[in-house]
Amino acid sequence: MEVIISNYPEELTFPQEYIDNVKAAAEKVGELYDVANGEVSVTLTNNEYIHTLNKQYRGIDRPTDVLSFALNESEEPEIEGEPEVDVLGDLVISVERAEEQAADFGHSVRREMAFLTVHGMLHLLGYDHMEEADRIEMEEEQRYVMEQLGISRDDAKEKKAPKAEPQQPEADKKAKHKSGFIAVIGRPNVGKSTLVNTLIGQKIAIMSDKPQTTRNRIMCVLTEPDAQIVFLDTPGIHKPKHKLGEYMVKAAEGTLKEVDAILFVVDATQKLGPGEMYILERLQATKRPVILVVNKIDLIEREKALPIIAHYTSKYSFAGVVPISAREKMNLDGLLDEVKSYLPEGPQYYPEDMITDQPERLIVAELVREKALHLTRDEIPHAIAVDVDEMTTRPNDDVYIRATIYVERDSQKGIIIGAKGSMLREIGALARTDIQNLLGSRVFLDLWVKVRKDWRDRDGILRNFGFGDER
């Protein structure tokens, strides 16, 4: 494996050990994955330069730790008589960011530089972490390579960056990093998706004042210096009335078995009723700590909050209680502190710039569905599904999206289209704004409407729309 290492800007200098670590890690990947005759270029840089690259190529306005640019096969012409070389592409590693993360995670810069190199090399070889199965596979490959390098997370050599820092008393040292999974459950329409979107800082889960808006379990990742919290935003738990409802409840209840703690979100403006009791009955079977999150406290008088909390705590022994307003961002720091107290010590499972496992096509479809639900109000029940048929980037970097809105009745199709297409145009205009913010590109959105009679009770159509019995 030929590893070509350079610095940019050129005036930057780094310890030779950093360079040796990167070279050894890249060569080990080449040896283990049968690309020992390959070639990779590695640029060691600072936060400022990798920030520029992120903004230019990924629409991310902040520095990250490593970028991978795979070389398309067509970009490198074959030369007759030359030995065959597999040119993999380029890696860009922010050494400044690696030093920061090593300090945050409490391990050596040596370990962090090697890990980032391995992570980037696996991307060049085609590994990814957008889907859950792919993430698990990639993490296993990373562990395997690091073991072969003989570098563990407990590696203590050079735990500090080269800069000299004063010794701190043991009691003042930074707490160990925490990470874990948190289920967000509750009756439909209590603000679960609003809460998750507000915490993450970006719209991932769609929001509507109609119940049962979220249909799939959505994983959202919040990365902070001391912890990485993976929120699982679930469909609202309710008594199902059709096969789609059965799938949604199964997805929500299945999540409770996989997490470190549970946020039970309730609406402060609504009385504790059969819907909440239905959920509390199911929580009796879990051994996970359950935190009661009383949302929308900005909509009630302060003196009414304590009786609401007392009513809930008389029905279930909660591990903690946190009143909040997700929409007004009230007491969210207090909620995060409570959540972190139940997280185990652990590594950062996902890259710091990853905020969801949902592919862009699915998020786009959900944004269109959100606007249709919002604009049609009570005229259309939850008979709407959206499927993205085509999503391509044009030569001018504009994105063309063709999506189909499915309904169950011809009368519903007429409502979605509206007089002379007015409703469909309005749905498209509102959805396009959110999609452009998501993708960072100008979007041409081509919407169609079709009828699939009683699709919510037809297993085959449900599977085509991404619902099923796997959970």
In short:
With 471 residues, the protein is of the alpha/beta class. The chain is built from 14 helices and 13 strands.
Explained architecture:
This protein has 471 residues and is an alpha/beta fold. It folds into 3 domains: 2-149, Collagenase (Catalytic Domain) (3-Layer(aba) Sandwich), CATH 3.40.390; 178-340, Rossmann fold (3-Layer(aba) Sandwich); 360-464, K homology (KH) domain (GMP Synthetase, Chain A, domain 3), CATH 3.30.300. Helices cover 37% and strands 20% of the residues. The chain has 14 helices and 13 strands. The strands form 3 sheets. It has a 6-stranded mixed beta sheet with strand order 6-7-5-8-9-10, sandwiched between helices. A 4-stranded mixed beta sheet has the order 1-2-4-3, with helices on both faces. The longest helix is centred in the N-terminal third of the chain and has 18 residues, at 132-149.
Using brief descriptors, characterize the structure shown.
14 helices, Collagenase (Catalytic Domain), Rossmann fold, 37% helix, disordered C terminus, six-stranded mixed β-sheet
